[in-house]
Amino acid sequence: xxxxxxxxxxxxxxxxxxxxxxxxxxxxxxxxxxxxxxxxxxxxxxxxxxxxxxxxxxxxxxxxxxxxxxxxxxxxxxxxxxxxxxxxxxxxxxxxxxxxxxxxxxxxxxxxxxxxxxxxxxxxxxxxxxxxxxxxxxxxxxxxxxxxxxxxxxxxxxxxxxxxxxxxxxxxxxxxxxxxxxxxxxxxxxxxxxxxxxxxxxxxxxxxxxxxxxxxxxxxxxxxxxxxxxxxxxxxxxxxxxxxxxxxxxxxxxxxxxxxxxxxxxxxxxxxxxxxxxxxxxxxxxxxxxxxxxxxxxxxxxxxxxxxxxxxxxxxxxxxxxxxxxxxxxxxxxxxxxxxxxxxxxxxxxxxxxx
Length: 355
Ligand code: SAH
Hints:
By secondary structure, this protein is of the alpha/beta class. Helix content is 39%, strand content 18%.
């Protein structure tokens, strides 16, 4: 029976090598994790074992396409899984770090209006191995540089797939040498998940996708707000900050005249300041199902300056991969060619508006 490399336990891996000394299983385990090697690359193994493992350990991720943007600094993979569902992974090389953005579900059930994954709906949870393998592929592609950061900001809602995501986090931390402060979970704001996270012993970074700081607007943009309104979200965030000692991040996708007005600054300041949170501003990226444009660069800068003036730390996130639909909120492998055309049209419209 073929198995996928990262959904096996150590014992299950050893059981694939009957008759081999115990140190072999350890070598393979370390090769898979610490060096992100495929069995074929493990030259310290006898050739027969290497070949046998190569045919038994089949990657969970089958490549459908690989696209590059930003002068080769950004790579987006589209993968097909065993049951033919599709997910995407994005690798971003910066001067000071190399970051991979991984998917945690195929599709997403949160239905945020402006997000392409949310527009396409939910398919299924990813397994821990499917999540870890995205990181392993990115580690290989990053060479000779070292993959330093993992952000759980691809397709899906990490805290809606808590157990499998946490198993992946532990594997990355314990076996792949990624420190907790270089791992970031991004959530739409699932309060029970945030509280559960506060009880874990690994202080990972938490990013909350806020986008609106009054319940009426947030109910509309981020429908799960109806279940977990801002007051409950703020309490859970405070609990996480106290327990983890990490600085909270707030994600805010700026949408022209929807959440980039002076009153939005005031409301965001009231939410962010008591939590001493850092705000990441992202001009909204175009998606097929939401006919509203992102804020112009001038309005984005103004919003940032107003936050800074009110004592809230804020930075503007440089968009990566927009031309290959790899930017925030654009991951939606289920979107067909027709959807892409619409996306292209929206981008042209946005560019025209920015001029
Ligand atoms: N479900 C998680 C993680 C995936 S979304 C979450 O909501 O945080 C990753 C980030 O991209 C979130 O901050 C999300 O709100 C943002 N995003 C979604 N669609 C976007 C778009 N069209 N433009 C910019 N950011 C978007």
